[in-house]
Each structure stands twice: as C-alpha cells, then as structure tokens.
Write a structure and sequence with these properties.
The chain has about 400 residues and is α+β, with helices and mostly antiparallel strands. The chain is built from 10 helices and 14 strands. The protein has a 6-stranded antiparallel beta sheet with strand order 3-2-1-6-5-4, with helices on both faces. A hairpin with a 4-residue loop joins β12 and β13.
Length: about 400
C-alpha cells in the first residue's frame, strides 16, 4: 500500500556486531537528534507541533519511515494516533487502536516495560494491530511516555523492512520518550499559567525545574553513550579506530559534564563564567599528562547558558588539542584567557609556547574532525576564529558578541 509522505525507505540501521565505525556514527547521530529535540522542546509552546516534531526526529533516529505517538484515552480505554509520520491520510488524529496487554503498545503502556517486536508475523506474545497490518509493518518498538503527573501514552517506531531493533535503539527511544514526557509536562504547566495569573510565579519556578531536569536527563543519556563507546573501544585492536573511539567518548563525556553543571546551577538562564569554566579546567588539568600546566584568566561575568554550552565545548577542544600537539617533549604550559574587550564582547584566547603552526597551515582546508568542531562552534558563537603564530607557539583568538542578559558582574 502506498504511503503518503515518502517514496523510498531510508537506509537501514546497522546490525549488532556489524561495522564498528558505522555503528559509532549511527549512535552519535542518535544523540545529536536527542539534543536537537531537547532544544526544540524548550522552545515549543504548542503540544501538537511538539508531538509531530518528536515523531519526525525519532523516526530519523531509527532510520524508519514510520513513527507515532499514541495518546491514551481513559474514557474509551484505547489509544488515538495523536501524531505521526509515514501513515496514510486520515490516520493521524483519528485512528484508534487497542490499549490492552494483548497488543505491543498496550503492553508497554499497562506494564511500563518497553517492547521490541522484530518479527510481528511470528509474534506469539501479542496480536498485530490492524493499523500495522494495513501498512505492511513487520517490526516495531514501543516505549512508555510518562511524566511525574502520570502516563501520557506510547511512543512507537515501526518499520516495513527487514532488520532488527536493538537494546541500544531501545535506550535511545526511552531517553527520547523521557524528554518528551518532561516537555509535555512543561507545556501543561504553561497552560495552567495562562489560565490563572495567580499561579504565575509557581509555574515559572516549575518550568525552571523541568529545564534542569531536561539537562539532567540529557546528561544521563550522554553518559550511557560514553559507556557504550568505551565498551566498543575494548572490542577493537586497530590503533586508528581505538583513537577515534577514545576521542568520540571524550567529546560525548564533555557534553555530559556541561549538562551536569547546568542541571546543578541555581539559575537556568545564566551561569557564572569564571566558576563554570573553572570546574571544566580543573577536570582538564586532572586528565592532562604529567608536565603539562594550564593557566587561566577568566572574567567573573554572567553568561547566557545558550552561549556557555558551545563556549565550553570549544574551550575543551582547544585545550585538548594544545596539550596533544603543541609540545613535542610532552611538557609545557597552555594559557586560557576569557575577558571583555569592547562593550558587549568577550575575547577567548588560547595560547602555548610550543612548536607553532606548520608552515603551510590553512585552517579553512584542514579536514580533521577537531578543526571542523572548532570552526563550527566558533561560528555558533558568532565569531571569526584567528590562528596566529605566537613566536614561539600558537595563539587562537575568538571575539564574539555576548547575548543580552549576559555580561553582568557575577
């Protein structure tokens, strides 16, 4: 039966035990999509668009054409397809399906346990819902959407192609559903705010708690990915692939640490730059090789969290690269400075006294992932990176405009 949204299926997800580099790229892409949805959830104020975006991004994460959110209707004792991608016209917003334990989605909802069905035609635990049969679905994965206020429904990804959903796919979907549950709860809080101005301050406080909770759950999901990368690293013997997995794990761990600090912060919109970067630098010092030293000079100003995150990732990448490449002897000093320049601007400087830039160095044409990350994060901050010869050593300079609500003395 023809579907209404896509003419061809996306590439299949990698099988367990397959190519390690392909699996790594697949899992990293899932975490990128989780972070993308987290940002969307914080900006969205409309439940319908939030749910629709959730199904779109989740389908991308599992490389499938089909995804849906099943909302439980307590008065009817069944589900309604509240949002979805891939389904025929008239399904989303109208189609009902059973919520009893005899169906995969009903079992996930009633028990709270996720369900993977990789061979629906051979499934003996559940019946295959008619909606899936009509669309030629052969495998499905279901997880509960739940917030502190109770269960909302089920997030389900379906596929008409051969293959397998894995436990790692399940971890991605459960983390995704957790974020969605928190986002739905935040929107319910906003609706209560609009209906009663007397509850204004309470609702704002509740929203901030939920924002911290999102950072906390993103941190937990990223920590899980870092652990999976460590496990994969122990299964390979090729040095180049080992280094790639180590670097990927380190970057994912840094993002998790940043979200951990944001979660623990008293203020969710701004953060004290000196304290925030001080903690990050302490951890970098702890992991640096003996003989390396790091000196810092960081202004005590309040910076918007939207800028603090890419700035922290950029600093981590620059310092890590400096310790790794600047000194052939393995010993030397790296200096980090973040200070105001002209009004409304900060200047980031990372310098060393090492062997300096190669004679033919061209930052725009360097193909390494690290340099691409540095260029991308610099662009995200709105600045133009400069690589300078420090005679001796290398100096990186980035000046960027600070968002409003920042640059207040901490």
């Amino acid at each position: 039966m023809m579907r209404n949204d896509q003419a061809s299926a996306p590439p299949l997800a990698p099988e367990e035990g397959g190519d390690v580099s392909e699996e790594l790229a697949y899992r990293l892409r899932q975490q990128e999509l989780t972070a993308e949805f987290g940002r969307c959830a914080l900006r969205s104020h409309d439940t319908s668009s939030l749910l629709q975006e959730a199904t779109r991004i989740c389908a991308l994460g599992l490389r499938s054409d089909f995804c849906k959110v099943l909302k439980y209707l307590p008065n009817e004792g069944q589900f309604i397809v509240q949002a979805g991608v891939g389904w025929n016209p008239g399904v989303v917003g109208h189609a009902r399906t059973g919520a009893d334990k005899e169906s995969p989605a009903g079992y996930a909802f009633q028990t709270g346990e996720p369900v993977i069905s990789n061979h629906l035609a051979e499934e003996t635990r559940f019946r295959t819902p008619a909606l899936l049969v009509e669309h030629g679905i052969t495998r499905a994965i279901n997880v509960l959407i739940r917030g502190d206020g109770g269960s909302y429904g089920v997030l389900e990804v379906d596929s008409p192609t051969s293959g397998r959903f894995t436990d790692a796919d399940l971890a991605f979907m459960q983390g995704f559903a957790n974020l969605l549950g928190v986002a739905l709860e935040r929107q319910q809080g906003e609706e209560a705010l609009r209906s009663s101005e007397a509850r204004l301050q309470e609702a704002i406080a509740h929203q901030e708690v939920l924002t911290r909770e999102i950072s906390h759950r993103v941190k937990n999901s990223l920590t899980m990915v870092a652990s999976l990368l460590s496990m994969q690293r122990r299964t390979v013997s090729e040095p180049t692939l080992q280094r790639a997995l180590d670097e990927a794990r380190a970057r994912v761990s840094t993002i998790a640490q940043v979200h951990d600090r944001l979660w623990r912060a008293d203020e969710v919109h701004t953060i004290n730059l000196a304290e925030f970067m001080g903690e990050l630098c302490d951890e970098i010092r702890a992991t640096a090789a003996p003989g390396h030293t790091l000196r810092t000079d960081i202004a005590s100003v309040l910076l918007a969290t939207d800028q603090a995150v890419p700035l922290a990732l950029l600093v981590n990448e620059l310092l890590t690269n400096a310790f790794k490449y600047a000194y052939a002897t393995g010993e030397g000093e790296v200096r980090l400075t973040i200070q105001p320049t002209e009004p409304g601007h900060l200047q980031l400087t990372v310098s060393d006294g090492g062997q300096g830039l190669p004679p033919d160095f061209d930052a725009d044409n360097v193909k390494s992932l690290g340099m691409k990350l540095i260029a991308g994060l610099s662009s995200q901050l709105g600045g133009q990176p400069e690589w300078q010869d420090a005679h001796p050593g290398t100096r990186f300079v980035l000046q960027f405009l600070v968002q409003e609500r920042s640059m207040m003395q901490g």
